[in-house]
Amino acid sequence: MTEENNLTLDLSIPSPTTQAFHNNSLTRFNELLYDGIFTVGNITSKEQLYDFKNEGKHIGYRLEKASDRKVYFIKSKDVDKLPLKITKTIRDSFRTDVLHLVKGVKTVNIPSSKDASFRNIIEWLCNFKHTNPLHWKLYKIIGVVSAIDRINYRVITNAGFGKDSVVDAITELVNQTANIYGATFAKLEYNLKNNFLFFNEMGNLSKDDKFNMQSFLLDSGAYRNKYMKRSRKSNGTKEVYDVSNTTIGIASNPLSYYRSKKQQSFIDMFTQAVINRFLPFRFEGELTHEFETNFNADNVVSKNKNFYKKIISTLNWYRDNNMIIDGVDWHYNPTRDFGRAGSRYSRTYNVLSKYISLYAESKEEYKQLVDELYKSYKRALKEDAKDYGDEINYEDKEGLAKYTMENII
Predict the structure, then answer these.
(1) Cβ-contact 162, 140 below 8 angstroms
(2) Is-contact 222 348, C-beta < 8 A?
(3) Which of 6, 182, 283, 392 is the most buried (most CB within 10 A)?
(4) Rounded to whole angstroms, what are the CA distances from 279 to 21, 251, 267, 282, 356?
(5) What torsion, rounded to 10 degrees, do the Cα atoms 39, 351, 282, 25 define?
(6) Is 31 helix (H, G, I), strand (E, B) or coil?
(7) Domains in the chain: ranges and CATH
(8) What is the arrangement of strands in the sheet containing 84-94, beginning at the earlier edge strand?
(9) What are the CA-CA distances from residue 300 to residues 18, 42, 294 (Å)?
(10) Contacts of 53 (CB under 8 A, 6+ apart)
(11) Mean pLDDT of all residues belonging to the chain
């Protein structure tokens, strides 16, 4: 199956308005589109056994929506039916919590159809002004690929680049993405039903959380389909999670930021085995878009709803068909050296290159984008190493990270 880059769209306006991807607009659209609908993005607990006062013992998850003050409990057998509407509940209690036990559901079909080209999606999404348009474009491609395929990566930028903008937009549109701030393992566990996990800052991990996160990143970063929790306190009991369709993205600031704050960075916290699983990119620039704050979000949603809906249906289509979609052969295949990280870095790079080939309109454009992507990787290696000089030999308090310059090059 090949991509048709020149898919014609019959829209009343040629591109989204400037406020279309403002947080207020996206949040309002999400409220309207998913009114009464629960998705995996609404799961707010890990799978647990609840002993209800009246209904007895059940295994399942909590569901919550910002627009609904109720806290729901859905049985594990019904989770695979998400997205769904709740048709019947019983009010009950568990310990000191009041929950609404879900007794009836109605499945909801979210559209999955190719209503736009891949290029359309990238051009429309977060169409903000940026001091480095090329890096901004590459980052948007990485964000979209994260939602429709499986990759593992780390992105390093200065403050103001716009890392959250793309992730937050995708989160509001497809409700299968988690932008996790202040990562803890508990947050990770209840977000594992999402297809795209984006970690913002991991410096507050406890000793046990660091142990569990190290284990998780080793498994998911190796593209394994299952992750088995290896808790220090498990006493032989192990929990297994399906990560076969899970993208892991990790956001980092430059090393100089962590040094100035006397904080640990990602490469300080984890072993070289973990680092070698997440292809790093160093992007430059910052958003210069002047966001309006005084506007009617309902009007913006009304003007842009066709774009929102086409993005959602097309992203779903790509996710449903990513295994059978072929890239465009632009007859440009340079050898890329990823050092000791080898096949794991190259796998992520090759997936991104496939989608870049779908975006590009010419061999020259494809060459420019994939060459800059690789240069961004090489810049990230220098970024990771520059504060250590020629020799890196760091061992953190937990004994999790120790490496030399030789491991990175």
Answers:
(1) no
(2) no
(3) 283
(4) 28, 12, 12, 10, 17
(5) -30
(6) helix
(7) 7-36+113-409 (3.40.50), 39-107 (no CATH)
(8) 37-38, 84-94, 97-107, 68-75, 56-65, 48-52
(9) 9, 25, 12
(10) 92, 93, 94
(11) 88
List, for residues 242-263, the tens digit of each pLDDT value. 899 999 999 999 988 888 888 8
CA distance readout (Å), 155 to 251, 301, 381: 5, 30, 11
User: How long, in residues, is the chain?
Assistant: 409
Name, in order, each residue with C-beta under 8 angstroms of 166's C-beta and a sequence gap of 6 or more.
125, 126, 139, 140, 143, 144
pTM (2 d.p.): 0.88
Count Cβ atoms within 10 A of the Cβ of residue 145 and give its class: 0-12 exposed, 13-18 middle, 19 or more buried.
buried
**What is d(CA 386, CA 98) in angstroms, rounded to the nearest whole number?**
53
Nearest Cα to 348, choosing from 249, 272, 266, 256?
Answer: 249
d(CA 252, CA 305): 33
And the tokens for 6? Answer: 């020149």
- Cα 282 to Cα 156, 254, 320: the distances in Å are 5, 9, 30
Backbone φ, ψ for residue 139 (5° rounding): -65, -40
